[in-house]
Amino acid sequence: MAVFERDRTDIDEPIEFDFFDESPTVEAAREEPKPRARRRMPRRPPGGGSNTPLIRLGLLIAGGIVLAVGLILWVNACQGARTGPYQSYMTEVEGVAGDSAQIGRDLNALIFSSGIQLEDLQSQLEGLQSAQAQVVRRTEALDAPGPLREQQESLVEVMLLRQSGLSGLAAAFSGITDAEAAQQAGSDLAVQSQRLVASDVVYEDFFRVRAQEIMEQQGVTGVAVPESTFVPNIELASAESWVLVVERLLRPPAEGGLRGNSIAGVRVLPEGTQLSASEDNTVIASQDLALEVSVENSGESQETQVVVQLTIQQSPEPLRSEQTIQSINPGDTRTVTFRDFGLPQFGARTNVKVTVEPVPGETNTNNNTADYVVFFTIPD
């Protein structure tokens, strides 16, 4: 240890470490960076001059309109999809129902044709029967929507009843040989015609009304169920009426006992007053003015296609109108109503004349015409 201490000459001198001290010249040269100035955005002027709320409101309204239109289109599309099959079906029903109803009108006109004979009726009846058979086949081919399948079956039944009734009428007419068989023929014909009447009841109650109810339950609107009436003259359901038809068909056109019609009276509508043939009459010429003429069959035979004429004499041209009564049985009275026959002259003395045309074999025509003196007035 002594040797080491002798060799050290600077043992008492302290050692200084100055490498952590910074030079004052470097300290002064370094400067802190100044913060960069931030660019200011222009401020919104006071007073709320922006249109942003209005734009938002406009967009909101436009969106609502688009949504409403879209909803309407969607609802209409759904309604159209629901209604379409029913509309198509009822359009086809209208075709067969209308054709069948026309056959019924043709039958009625045929039976009450003036001067027709039994042989001619039998021949034309076969044609009507064939036409109804075609309607049956078309009806059976219809494709009804599911909820109306039962009503479709009722519709087929209606058309079959009409075909059966026509076939029965043709068979009954073919068995008529002479006037002696008129009573029995009338009964047979009434039984067959009752099938035709029943077809109208089935159509109305079990098809038309029920189909309308089901469509309402299904939410189907705007689809109408067509009507179809085969027997416009309900008298054809009675045996008495058919007996008269048979007797008329069997007699020669100019025979049949006492024949003729007469004017039984004229009534003013809507007041309901009866015109007098012996006194002056005052009639208010309202918009609803109508003249109801009563015609009585004063003979012993059924009369058909009875023509009734109305004439209102005035200048420069008289007013004329004409109507036809399909049939009148002996002792019965039928009425025809004349409407919209024109504007009569007001205040002047006017002659109103009604006439029923004579039928073949009519000998007394004095009561076929009636004349009335009328003053037409303006309603208060």
Characterize the structure shown:
The chain has two domains: 76-250; 261-377, Immunoglobulins (Immunoglobulin-like, Sandwich). It is α+β, with helices and mostly antiparallel strands and 380 residues long. It has helices at residues 2-7, 24-29, 52-111, 118-140, 149-174, 182-217, 239-250; strands at residues 261-269, 273-274, 281-284, 290-297, 303-313, 319-328, 333-339, 349-356, 369-377. The longest helix has 60 residues, at 52-111. It is 44% helix and 18% strand. A hairpin with a 3-residue loop joins strand 1 and strand 2. The strands form two sheets. It has a five-stranded mixed beta sheet with strand order 3-9-8-5-6, with no helix packed on it.
List keywords for this structure.
380 residues; Immunoglobulin-like; 18% strand; five-stranded mixed β-sheet; alpha+beta; 7 helices; disordered N terminus; 44% helix; four-stranded antiparallel β-sheet
